Amino acid sequence: MPELPEVETIANGLHKRVAGDRIESVWLGSKPEPLKSTAAEISSTLQGSRLARVRRVGKHIVFDLASEDLPATRQWIVHLGMTGRLLISTPEDELPKHTHLVARLESGRELRFVDPRRFGRLEVRQNSFTGPGAEPLQISADDFAQLFHRSKAPIKGALLNQKLLHGVGNIYADEALIRAGIRPRRRAHSLTRTELNKLHAALRKVLHAAIKAGGSSISDYVDANGDEGFFQIQHRAYGRGGKPCLTCKTPIKKIVVAGRGTHYCPRCQK
DNA sequence: ATACCGACCTGTCAGC
DNA sequence: TGCTGACAGGTCGGTA
What we know:
By secondary structure, the protein is an alpha+beta fold. The protein contains six helices and ten strands; from the N terminus they run αβαβββββββααααββ. It has a four-stranded antiparallel beta sheet, covered by helices on one side. Strands 2-3-4-8 form a four-stranded antiparallel beta sheet, covered by helices on one side. The mean pLDDT is 92.
């Protein structure tokens, strides 16, 4: 579900609402799929920890944990997958179907992880988590060009490769490419430096605009406060197959690239 | 090493 | 109304 702008919105919202609170106890569901660490590791690490800070790394939500006896080097990492959600609730709120973790907080609230499709992952770590790739909003144009100029993959696939850049998903890959005027099937190494610069700038711009809009709500995405994002009204390619290009009126094409539904303008994108 | 492709899951929606 | 199949914001592992 969530890509960089949505995860950033969720992490910032969670930070505002739960930073400083302490986890008193943890309930874990019986389904093991969402766990990368063992249930015992997750329970023992979270229990008693203070949520010092909540932030985004790539598409991951990172909770920096602190406790009386240990320095703040432990982290709780949450990847939301396609349908994962972190909800702040009261104990009286009905437990949603597909709830996999409930953390009871000192404040009396509960932080719940709900994920119907179970593509999300929970993990605890001791060391500092830096994510699989580079941050799209921090990387320089030079380093950005370096990442892609040797890859034979279609540029759309390369943008989705989290080991290169982390945080870009299907929506923002399509939205960056249409804004940069580049076809999704172009081999990454075939892009000129001018095109890579345009793509770097377009990606930064679209991600910043989407963060400002609170992300894209396609079906059920809501942030930590339950509010919808509204960047979807600014989509030019994603979800607009058959509809006229906002620049030239040519119908937007929908194809499959790197196994993902891909939308582009056959006239504006070269 | 690189790049496709199915698998992993549930829910929703279109079409019959 | 109800069934079937396609599709969905992501990632991983196997295979070519």
